[in-house]
Amino acid sequence: TLSPARMTQTNPLPGPLGPWKVTIYDQENFQGKRMEFTASCPNVTECGFDNIRSLKVECGAWIGFEHTSFCGQQFVLERGDYPCWEAWSGSNAYHIERLTSFRPICSANHKESKITIFEKQNFIGRQWELCDDYPSLQAMGWPNNEVGSMKIQCGAWVCYQYPGYRGYQYILECDHHGGDYKHWREWGSHAQTFQIQSMRRIQQ
Fold it and tell me: Where is each Beta/gamma crystallin 'Greek key' domain found (predicted)?
């Protein structure tokens, strides 16, 4: 287990919704080397791992990243067991089986989540306030398959490229960017399009 002194504290200390705890393994099905974390890890290779191949989220919600320093494809990691890469990636992303950095989602609050989506970037055009999960925005009346910008009033959300919670994942938090995401470039370093067709609240 990594000592707290060696853990990189890039997030606030656990608050009322904490603490956080995740256990990572360097082999699938919770085999091989293991290590527990209660705070952010910007680079698992500095902990002696070449990659994460399975993990268990015991407390809190986390966001995993394909690359070090919280870059690349994003994966939401809610409480539960993830025996292999497919368990957290879904049926969607381009198939590079890497997870090399992660951090807690401090603002995750499933019961009190609110987001406003806008038709165009910079909070322009038609807008719609959401407080629930939507497996298909278009089925609920959103006019197209794109979202131009978003404001997160409270909680944390995971938005998906395709309906049914499939495709690239973008984790949006009220305590990042001041909750304002005015362009797809702010959704994550892997974002390449305005396309979002489903979204849900993140479970703490």
Answer: 20-59, 60-106, 113-154
